[in-house]
Amino acid sequence: MQTALSITCDFDSGNIVVLDASNAQHVKLAIRPDTRSPHFQWFHFKVDGMQVGQPHAFSLTNASESSYNRAWTGYNAVASYDQKTWFRVPSQFDGKALNFELSPEQPHIWFAYFEPYSRERHEWLVDKALNRADSQLLATGKSVEGRSIPLLRKGDGAPGKRKIWIIAQQHPGEHMAEWFMEGVIERLQENDAELQTLLASADLYLVPHMNPDGSFHGHLRTNAQGKDLNRAWQDSTPQLSPEVFFVKEQMEKYGVDMFLDVHGDEEIPYVFTAACEGNPGYTEKQKELEADFRARLSDLTKDFQTRYGYPKSAPGKANMNLACNSVGERYKCLSLTLEMPFKDNDDAPDVVTGWSGKRSRQLARDVLTIIGQMVSALR
Ligand code: GEM
Ligand code: ZN
Question: Ligand 1 site: residues with CB under 6 angstroms?
């Protein structure tokens, strides 16, 4: 069948290469690697000119060569007609390509690897944090390409306050991370009693988006220099990783009593944390705090568990270029990488949405509850 399908990705976080769109029953596509790095996995594109109600089939032909090969098994692509409501489209990995098919309700649709968190929504979120959630703009970093990286603080910075840092989306394709930050800021805005108790003894230092260049370009893992920011915490430079350089500088200025680095995991269909057990200076106190955080959060919600996660690092063998390990070692505080799935939480699956922006926001609210319970024990 000859068609006039138009497939575009010339927008914020767009990523696709059109190999052959002449047959709507078999549209051949490829994911484009990050600009200066071979990593790829994130995709995001718009299709126009479809026949409503007729089957259309899409193949991401280079899926098997992507960064996380085991990511595609059990994975379903997300789609939206309006960029607001996203739903999963049943997808199959055939060992080489990821294939999905649908009979659309409208002539156009967006497909993505995960519900995208747009730069526009990021601007709206920062504005909301400043004007509705009563936080302040403490400093603004600059990415390689000059995009701003706001550091927000909720709280007055009074001496004696615990300093709780939450940063998100070092890996630009992990859009669930900024959805999580939206959940944090939403709860700051609502300012419930539990949160007020937390804020009486702690200030929150928030970086809603660490890697705006990477996200804009539709990257999976790196900034505009091809640097994986979560491999830059020992040797960050203003040239190659100014995003990390900025945050480290700010941490030195204000101090850190707890650190949470928010990510998404391509392969594991659960929410989990990774921690500092492999650090050379790992303390008994850090170990206790990690266990306490995990136990409390898994008691509170089915959207967190402790059975599945990364293999533990051997004592002294941690990669100190990771944010979690580097910050944990420097400040001897509770320091965690929080991982949410791209697929779903298999303990509480949602067939319509899989893991989603909404669930990432709710998780953030639950995490704030736990931080509130633990704040007096952090030091
Ligand atoms: C991660 S996080 C690495 C695992 N952390 C520890 N402490 N073992 C990464 O940066 O590769 C996964 C991700 O990108 O989300
Ligand atoms: Zn990550």
Answer: 171, 230, 263-265, 274, 310, 313, 322, 324-325, 337, 339
